[in-house]
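Sample A.
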Amino acid sequence: MAMASTVMGSCVALIRPPALLLHHPAASSSSFSSLWNKLSTSSFHGEKSLVEEAFELGSRNRSMTRRCGRAMEVMAVAEVSTEYRKKVAVVRIGTRGSPLALAQAYETCAKLKAKFPELEEEGAIEIVVIKTTGDKILDKPLADIGGKGLFTKEIDDALLEGAIDIAVHSMKDVPTVLPKGMTLIACLPREDVRDAFICPTAASLSELPAGSVVGTASLRRQSQILHLYPSLKVVNFRGNVQTRLRKLSEGAVNATLLALAGLKRLQMEEHATSILSTDEMLPAVAQGAIGLVCRVDDYKMEDFLLAINHEDTRLAVVIERSFLGALDGSCRTPIAGLAVRDTDQKCIFRGLVASRDGTEVLETSRKTWYNEVDMFNAGADAGKELLSKAGPGFFDR
């Protein structure tokens, strides 16, 4: 028998067909009044129209007394309430819609399910795809359309408005200052931080002939490429991983660079021609790290996220973002930074700033204890050092 249905938010609440309601035992039970009172004072917040509709459907049966009509109404509310609780996701994860962003969201989902059996139930976790400004504007360099926040703002807005419970971000896209009301609770284990060189005709950047065109949307990559190989030409090259690989195969550019972390998460690392060492190409701040954000007062989500946090990664992100924050860095500035845990269990940090044309590169390093306070302070100090050395107008060159 078909079931009547209505949409409540993003969830479908189901109501028993009238015939089943009319013959339900509660319709003639002497205890229906107490059941009604119990439901009336419950935390159920369904639409009143659902109950009214169910009552109207049932009252077409003229043999039903007014008392049984009330009982039918009780059962309709009970049924809707039960199904509503079943259908509403316990955790709503907000993410961009690119294949890589979705892979990161599903990785988060898998780790939550592994830690919390209740989240393994069907519908307990919902992936909510949100299109960001950076996804909509693809014909301009990132530096020309606003820098940091291009791939996060709309997702963060949805979080603050309560449309989602957790935001999953590539940490290299996240502004150093989060919007008020949000907190970065956790990071997943970091992937390979290196950049991949992809080219159908050469094995490495050094083998590209003079005048070869390298496509990248990253000013960091642009400046480091031009610093090492000034005879090459670098052009803006945007799109998701699949789009850029397609453009490369069509001959739009001679070569490109992509984060190896993204290729690995998409199981596409076979496309990498070679891997650049961090000495040749220092990665972006927080490259390869996935950040998990929730509202500051959402302690349930905090508990979920803390259970899957990878502390070494989170602390590495702290020092790298502290460095970036001191430089007031964004997609408009060529900045790189990398923190690793040394064999003596201390943090080794390297940072870099460069002019856009690659003619000037300034570098620094720090070694400190692997804890949040020392690492934050070391990152900020390194950033202030390079900011002082760079001087006015450095990033405009």
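Sample B.
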Amino acid sequence: MKRYSSVYLHISGYMFMKYRKISGIIFFASFVFACSYNKGTTAAPEVDCLPVESVSFSADIVPILLTNCAIPTCHSGNNPEGNLNLEASKAYVSLLKRGSGYVDVNDPKSSVLYSSLVSVSNPMPPEGQRPLTICELQLIELWMKQGVQNN
């Protein structure tokens, strides 16, 4: 058995304690960071949207759809994308198509319409087009919460 000098044992013990202290600090820092890091979500920016008591489909929702969705080569015409025509005269019936899931009055944020508008992987409107504002998204959500009235 090889005999180590007391200096060697002292230095190796010191290095072990130093390593243990550093690894403890790294573990603690990673634990704090992991607990404070919120994956994939960010706080919504503060935006002053006009307060709305009742959302009108024709006055509030249709203009959003016409400006952002029912544009040429998208959700309009004889062959609309996804077979979803969002022109003023056809939008309400298209969105409420039975079994489509486009709207959900109980959980608007899980509806196909809302999910598509906030999608990161497949955004609607597509890249190159102006995305909906937070106020427009809130109007669409409120319209669904209020029972998707055709008014």
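B remarks: Residues 6-36 form the longest helix (31 residues). Residues 27-44 have pLDDT under 50 and may be disordered.
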